[in-house]
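B., you asked whether I could sanity-check this one before it goes into the benchmark set. Here's the sequence:
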Amino acid sequence: MRRGYFIAPWGEAPVSLSRRSQSKSGGPVFAVFIAASIGLMTLSSAVLALELPKPEPVQKYLGTAATGPNYTVKPLVRSDGVMRIFDVDTPYGKFAFDGVEFAKLRIHELDAVAALEKMSQSEAFGKAFGRAALGPIKFGADLITNPAETVERSLSGIGNMFDRVGAGLSNNRADRDTLVDSLLGVSDTQRELAVDLDVDPYTDFPPLAQRLKEMAGAMAGGGLPVKAGLSFVPGGIGIAVSSVATVSDAKDTLRSKTAAQVIAETRATLLSLGVPDESVGRLVENRNYTPADLLIMARALKRLHAENTTAFVEHAAGAGSRNVAFYHRRRAQILAARSNELGGIMSFVTFGGQPINVARNGNVVAAFTVDDIAWTEVQQRTFVAATTEIHRTNPGAVPVLVTTGAVTPTAAAEIGKRGWKIVHIKPQLRAIKNPVISGGVK
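And here's what the prediction gave me:
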């Protein structure tokens, strides 16, 4: 915690007393001293009202999923005032995951890594892996002797083949699926394997990305169907995660379409909502989003169909990290799913640099998918600025804070003082039902 610094109110110069300014009468100096003291007392009271976020036991958020076959989450979970930070030890390195839902997503991916490693140790998979090196050669022979049958087997149909080619030529993110891998079946198998595990085929998480590529390559080359490979996994994997943390919303598309096709659909969807092409371009070129993120977020915004979606997209395009990108995707999903119970989301407006919403009844709705809200300096500054702007531009509107996390009593009191109504919602939860993925924490 920083010490020795005091921030003067905006626009005011700091008050200082020098020996040269002192006078025998003490009048002017005393007046300045009193003024400075009153200012310090006021600011000190504001500082005393601020909170230091408290760590919480990991079981509160993850239950028994705090440990797994290939990871251990540290027993205490830190907070930055809005998001919980989970420190995780794995055989693949140490990680820090920001946010409960993002941590569950990563843990789910670690479970998938464990399943793939179990699969690789099975006798049946070992035989398939041994045949993997023959795959490209056999494919080459098929291509010469029976080209039509080979292409039909590697691709999913003539229409899809042309769609892939067209999307690849017009989209510079098509490198997610290389032509060689697509022809050899690696990319198709990887997507099918990932979707069956209910994880992102284009995950940026190194342990899972590497295992998916290795296993899918061996399975495609060895002629082992995905369903057969998954049947070799003893036991089960999984954690009951929010539906916004999985790819279920778009599993059929992610299974059958390439990255280029997915991004082409994302572009078309956002353009249909009136988002300028330049803004769409900045979003899809942000590598902190996977193609799955972009598709799921675009479909959620289409379901929401709010005016000025551009405000959301332009803000989301600036995501500077993977967890922030996931936050924007998740927020879009929550807004689409909960629009009716929030009074009917009609449009996006920007206050305090954040795209929030106006409901059908005229209320200003700020829905944030955070873990908990403590009254920190950041929150104080944010709510003061947002409240001032809302009252200036929407006089009479009731500002509503909608959150998926807890709000501390101090934060609730301070936010309430500024005329905000607080509404709590829960992220949609579901148990993952899959022949391979079972069990987990509720």
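One thing to flag: Residues 56-241 form one domain. Otherwise nothing jumped out at me.
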